[in-house]
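ok here's Molecular chaperone DnaK:
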Amino acid sequence: MDNVNDSASINERSKSIRKTLLQERQAILKEAKTEIGNFVKGDEKQLVEAAIDDGDWSVVDVNEDIILQKLHHHKLKLNKIDEALRKLNDGSYGICDDCGIEISEARLRVLPYAVHCVECKEKREKIEQVEKEQSFQ
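and the structure:
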């Protein structure tokens, strides 16, 4: 009987995680569509039409860069969410990609699309920091 209860509990957990991931995915898509719509229909056009000198054009360029960076960030996050949904389907959700150990519930509650446990993520961040520092030398 415990196996039945455990199975039901795991199924409920999976449904809850899937719902959270899908809600976050929808929110990101909605925000991205709004940003794209604003970009295409006129907010950017007003800046372009008002641009007179190089300083104005710099503002237009920076504004475009910010919008494109936000859209890129949305794309990366959507990819992570899609990967988490795939892992949920194949049964590998919540397992660290690096060490194969279970990712803590606390971490997954905060970041439901996490693919690394805290320890492995910290190692990766340290390596990235060292590589960044060496690239500046």
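+1. Residues 1-93 form one domain.
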